[in-house]
């Protein structure tokens, strides 16, 4: 049966790798994009056959789409505005992305770990219609049923992972007692009941899970490392993330219970001194009979 497919952002193009079944070992990698410049924020289509990603085009970034095993790519967005962070709707008919509000200005995070400055404005839009959904919102993530979108929103206090019908009545679902805490990079659980997110408090970068209905949170990692950009495995039994706990910034996973509580210690999947970040899990892993 097919292995779990992950995508890692490399210095040049995107890289595809197949993760180990039960005993983690370094996956075999194959580069799938080759145009010049840095390619970021890969996102799999619901059928697992296409990738959307942001790539440089004329001084700003645009959203591109390509089949994973084909050389040709299609540019989906145009104009002088910086576009990034694409995500597919569950039906595969719409791609949301973040767009800068000022032309010819690149959206950049306030730090190297992906926290965007709340002063910078962004908007999540449909690649098909170009309609604006939310202002000052980043990292859009569709719920599995397509009824809600999670974002990290600079209008929260602090920035929060929010949920609500697409573009309407956004609700803050996480909060902290300290204004020094930010919640970013939200991703829905496969059953649509929880959101995993990156929690930043000064120099501490950890991962938490919130129950959307009860607002109760649990800690997935609490170590003194930089644990970044978490995503769920399609089965909900693992959370994948990037971490420097092994030296370089590599890909790790941690087995979790249904509420996100860790069931064991994190397991390292990639090695080396590179920047293995922004993992995207192929939806086709749903059919694989394995711990994923």
Give a short synopsis of this structure:
The chain has about 290 residues and is mostly beta strands.
Largest sheet: 4 strands, antiparallel
Structural class by secondary-structure content: mainly beta
CATH-derived architecture: 6 Propeller
Using the coordinates shown, work out and report the CATH topology.
Neuraminidase
Tally of helical runs: 0
Q: What's the number of domains?
A: 1
CATH superfamily: TolB, C-terminal domain
SSE order, one letter for each helix or strand? EEEEEEEEEEEEEEEEEEEEEEEE
Total beta strands? 24
Gyration radius (Cα, Å) is 17 Å
Distance between the termini: 13 Å
- Helical fraction: under 10%
CATH class: Mainly Beta
Neighbour order of strands in the largest sheet: 3-2-1-24
β content, as a range? Answer: 35-45%
Q: Are there runs of 5+ residues with pLDDT below 50, and where?
A: 1-12, 157-161, 286-292
Mean pLDDT level: 79
Topology:
Elements: E1 4-9, E2 14-19, E3 28-31, E4 39-44, E5 50-57, E6 60-67, E7 73-75, E8 83-88, E9 95-100, E10 122-126, E11 132-135, E12 137-142, E13 149-153, E14 160-163, E15 171-172, E16 181-188, E17 194-201, E18 204-211, E19 217-219, E20 227-232, E21 238-243, E22 250-255, E23 267-268, E24 277-281
Antiparallel strand pairs: 1-2, 1-24, 2-3, 4-5, 5-6, 6-7, 8-9, 9-10, 10-11, 12-13, 13-14, 14-15, 16-17, 17-18, 18-19, 20-21, 21-22, 22-23
């Amino acid at each position: 049966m097919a292995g779990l497919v992950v995508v890692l952002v490399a210095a040049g193009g995107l890289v595809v790798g197949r993760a180990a079944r039960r005993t983690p070992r370094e996956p075999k990698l194959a580069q799938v994009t080759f145009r010049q410049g840095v390619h970021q924020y890969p996102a799999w289509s619901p059928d697992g056959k296409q990738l959307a990603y942001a790539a440089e085009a004329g001084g700003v970034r645009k959203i591109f789409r390509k089949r994973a095993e084909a050389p040709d790519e299609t540019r989906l967005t145009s104009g002088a505005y910086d576009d990034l962070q694409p995500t597919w709707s569950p039906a595969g008919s719409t791609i949301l992305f973040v767009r800068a509000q000022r032309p010819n200005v690149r959206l950049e995070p306030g730090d190297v770990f992906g926290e965007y400055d709340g002063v910078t404005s962004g908007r999540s839009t449909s690649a098909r219609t170009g309609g604006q959904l939310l202002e000052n919102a980043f990292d859009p993530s569709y719920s599995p049923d397509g009824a809600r979108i999670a974002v990290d929103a600079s209008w929260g206090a602090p920035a929060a992972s929010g949920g609500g019908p697409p573009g309407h009545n956004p609700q803050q679902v996480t909060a902290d007692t300290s204004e020094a805490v930010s919640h970013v990079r939200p991703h829905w659980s496969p059953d649509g009941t929880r959101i995993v997110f990156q929690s930043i408090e000064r120099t501490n970068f950890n991962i938490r899970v919130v129950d959307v209905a009860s607002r109760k949170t649990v800690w997935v990692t609490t170590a003194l490392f930089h644990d970044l950009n978490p995503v769920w495995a399609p089965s909900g039994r693992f959370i994948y993330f990037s971490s420097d706990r092994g030296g370089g910034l590599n890909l790790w996973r941690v087995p979790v219970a249904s509420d996100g509580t860790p069931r064991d210690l994190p397991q390292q999947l990639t090695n080396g001194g590179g920047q293995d970040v922004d993992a995207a899990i192929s939806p086709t892993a749903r059919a694989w009979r394995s711990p994923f």
